[in-house]
Design goal:
Length: 294
Amino acid sequence: MSWTERPTAHALPDGRLRLVHGPIDLILGADGPDTAVRAAFRRAHETFEPILPALAAELPRLRAASGPDPEGDVARTMLRATRRFAPAFVTPMAAVAGAVADHVLAAMLTGDHGLTRAHANNGGDIALWTSQAPYTLAVCENPVAGDPGARAKIGAGDGVGGVATSGWRGRSHSLGIADAVTVLARSAAQADVAATLIANAVDLPGHPAVTREPACEIAPDSDLGDRPVTVGVATLSPAARAHALDRGAAIAQDFLARGLIAGACLACQGERRITGRGLAPALPQDDTTELLHA
């Protein structure tokens, strides 16, 4: 697989930078002196350009659950992140969005960068860092189901460097029925894997309200092969929703106990579970003037 178009960079009116190449769409933000921000964005752009070709060259390995170690920097980050969740079945592709965000943020923070905050948002999977003002994120929102979601507040020294979201309505296929699972972890790659696995666990196997199709029939090159992925979920009873969320929450608690995540928010049809630290239900008085959306 290859892409003929060149990576593009667009300065946004609010001072952020957008980097796009094929399926990768990054929004970068940084706080600090103007010269520091410009230099960080320049490093990010230079680092971003070779990422997609390098991943495409190793795609067969990255879509497999086992095999030789990949060679590229981002690919190796993906593999390290997934290995932490053994023995669960997961391919390195479960970490791709978070790993790309981590890689670009690391370039922004190279050397004596002079920034006070920085983030790389890859379609809702976010790598972030702050030395001063905390970041506030809106997570697990579902206005259609009447769920205002939750807020995550991440400050310096919290040990959280990444946030990721997964669910059957998201960009990637899911084995479960969660509308959204958002995870806080040490890195975006690690959060990405955890969100995928917890979202897979929010499930009702065999339930007639859940429609599934083999992943390979929807996307022939899917890393999930012929595993049935969710394509539709009818309205569930409160007991069924609670049961599905309980299954996912048990996996989230296991990841917490193993030190793999800091916190998680699980949402299904207007109901929610929050576990760990850094997350709380959204309140009407929450300040929404500066939110990242995961």
